[in-house]
């Protein structure tokens, strides 16, 4: 496996009516574009409950956590449920020490 730069472009794609996948880095270098892509994908879905799968994320930092919180807030504002699968361990650890793990898990 080759090393992946944290500036690798991030893709957010629908893989079903109620499932999105995130691929690439979710870091400071990619957070703005990743957030926008996710918001577009969330907005394009008509599902009341969405699951976002992070199995394809190659790198993540605290900006990745911020992106998750933005997506949760948008879904909540629109009366939709949002849950996360395969959240990177680094994001989960940051959520725990930032005291927002319940918010991240509450989206589930």
Q: Total number of helical segments?
A: 4
Query: What top-tier CATH class fits best?
Result: Alpha Beta
Distance between termini? 31 Å
SS content category:
alpha/beta
Residue fraction in strands: 25-35%
Largest sheet: 4 strands, mixed
Give the overall pLDDT as a whole number. 90
Task: Name the helix and strand elements from N-terminus to C-terminus, one letter apiece.
Answer: EEHEHEHH
Note poorly predicted spans. Answer: 1-6
CATH architecture verdict: 2-Layer Sandwich
**Radius of gyration in whole Å, from Cα?**
13 Å
What is the overall shape? globular
**CATH topology assignment:** Transcription Regulator spoIIAA
Order of strands side by side in the largest beta sheet? 1-2-3-4
Q: How many structural domains are formed by the residues?
A: 1
Bin the helical content.
40-55%
Looking at CATH, the homologous superfamily is STAS domain
Instruction: Please count the beta strands (DSSP E, at least 2 residues each).
Output: 4
């Amino acid at each position: 496996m080759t090393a992946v730069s944290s500036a690798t472009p991030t893709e957010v794609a629908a893989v079903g009516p109620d499932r999105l996948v995130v691929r690439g880095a979710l870091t400071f270098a990619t957070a703005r574009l990743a957030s926008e892509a996710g918001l577009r994908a969330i907005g394009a879905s008509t599902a009341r409950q969405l699951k976002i799968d992070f199995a394809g994320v190659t790198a993540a930092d605290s900006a990745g956590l911020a992106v998750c919180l933005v997506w949760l807030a948008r879904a909540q504002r629109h009366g939709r449920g949002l849950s996360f699968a395969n959240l990177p361990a680094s994001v989960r650890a940051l959520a725990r020490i930032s005291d927002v793990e319940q918010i991240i898990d509450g989206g589930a």
